[in-house]
Amino acid sequence: MSSRAPQDSGRAAQRLWSVDEHLADVLAAIRPLEPIELQLLDAQGCVLVEDVTVPVALPPFDNSSMDGYAVRTADVQGASEEFPAVLTVIGDVAAGSGELPTVGPGQAARIMTGAPLPPGAEAVVPVEWTDGGTGGGAAAGMTPASAAPEGAGGEVRVHRAAEARAHVRARGSDVQAGDLALAAGTVLGPPQIALLAAIGRGTVRVRPRPRVVVLSTGSELVQPGESLAAGTIYDSNSFALAAAARDAGAISYRVGAVADDAETLRSTIEDQLIRADLLVTTGGVSVGAYDVVKEALSSVGATDEEADGGRMDFRKLAMQPGKPQGFGTIGPDHTPLLALPGNPVSSYVSFELFVRPAIRALMGLADVSRPSVRAALKADKALGSPAGRRQFLRGKYDAESGTVSPVGGSGSHLIAALAHADSLMVVPEDVTSVEPGAELEVVLLG
Fold first, then answer.
1. Do the beta carbons of residue 442 and residue 426 sit within 8 Å?
2. How many Cβ atoms from other residues are within 10 Å of residue 387's Cβ?
């Protein structure tokens, strides 16, 4: 594992980076993961790298959309409850049937939903339009074949006429052979996997879901479920970021909090490289005496940069929350690492702005950021914002009214407010006050 020499990091930190500059720098270092062939269920959430065409028409044959009787239209023309058409039942046609009976004049075949339309038949009459072969009134359903095999014979009275192709799903009515089923770049969800299975694809070529390792730093951190001692807090950041990585489409691995010791952190990161396409740390990137992420990664490999080309920069960004940020590549495979600040809201906002786009870029997606809208501020008073900083405030967006309301204050530790927000309100760098009713950019988190 190596990094740019400390003096390089110092030069990078001397100026204030914009949010857009930092994001562009991150994305410039990201390369989409190499495609692999996966079984369908393993490919859920992955991105196709090739167009998939339909090898056979779907459905592959004319079939019934109802449980009923396959008939010739001429035989049921003018049929009514008073004057039903009486047809001879020549057998059953079930889904999966191979050899099919031929329906001739005055005949009908009992047919089940999804079963192929037998030769000679032109339409299907639902069983509710018939007496079901009982000789009585309108049937509510069919007697199971196992309970009454004689139902496949005898006579049926049809009480309504049927037009040609009534209740028949035509061959190729869903997709035709040669049609484009799914285009390259499609994210595979349940409906897409269903389509692939329906056209006979057992595997598909995709970019795999990125493996993201999340670790938090701080000797004060205690794992949920354990008892708090004086001066300790529960580790929420690693849970939040691991969940956020999963939500972005990644496979996430959460590492328990690492104590404020640079050597321990270096060793932990080196151990995690084997299963990481992207590493995310939280905490330890500011200017305190115990900011170990900065200490550990600024000094690792400074003398062997030529060997494996890794580098780390620690920067200050013109944003609030989330001013201190770190980014680089480490290890022999140049694994990207994003070092986020430790305050809970700073950490989460930084994830949304920088880590989520990196994950989406690894997946090979063109659209990597959350959607945003314009909305009017709904508040009792003006919102203040520091000059020269792009501020991200928690908000509640109302799509119906086109408004957004602030949730909680601007403090970077107010995690309870974050839990009730569904958006981020963006105040530009050159704006220091936003009056009620003013229009803002709103990043949608849901």
1. yes
2. 8
